[in-house]
Amino acid sequence: RTLVEHEQQEARRELANLCYVALTRPRQYLFISGAESKRGMDNSWYRQLRRAIDPLGELGDEQACVLQHGEQPVSIASAPPVDNDTITPFDEALTHPIPTARLPHEIAPSRTGDGDILPGANGDHGEDHSEDEDGRLRGNVIHRLLQELTRTDNAQVADPAGLVAAEFALSPHSEDFTAWYRECMDLIGHPALRDLFVPEAGVEFINEVPIIYPLDGNIVHGIIDRLRIAADGVWIIDYKSHRLADDEAIPRLADAYRQQMHYYREGIARLWPQQRIRNLLLFTHRAVLHELD
Fold it and tell me: Which runs of E-coded beta strand occur in the chain?
């Protein structure tokens, strides 16, 4: 006996078990019907049952065979009329639909802007380039590199570049990854961006800050790339990794992120209501810091 024959026999046995269960569970009535397959299937459960319960001879396709065992159940007598005086009154409010509260809608700040996904916005990090797979990868890698390279907590690792490269299944020595890593290192060491990255006394930095808060019946939920907290205020820093030929397009591009940064500001203002809050976009490719008022 071949393995195929054994599997076919097991399949037939399983179908027979299922058919047996279906036939033995009804208490009063059992209706059997089926549709003939174009392939015939002489051994189908329906054909087997029809041969077994067709003692009166061959039936036509539109005929039915009825077998009865025992006596027909006696119909239950009609219930006596109900006395309306004995009916318990019910609350009038139950005759009206029960009002339900509107479910809150989740607002992702990085997906706001004129009702559409922002150019270069996606998920937590605000980088998509949906028509540019290389652009999306570039944005995600740069965000992770900046996160790991600027850590000041106990989660620091000896080789942050190697860690990030492994996360994205990239070689740390590839041309693209090397360029992205150099871009991040240039940002961290840039004199004009020192206040964003260099730790100082009285200054606290936090990377990847999740925020969630209610707003007008909805829920705002997002992640801020970097916070700088000091006596002079709280800075919200959001990385934008678009490749830009020059700085002229930055104001127009930054304006598209105004709503996103407004949501961030609103959430941070609830945590530090007395602090001055600055909204800053860092365009990594040009090493330009743009502030939104």
Answer: 106-107, 204-215, 218-230, 233-240, 277-283, 288-292
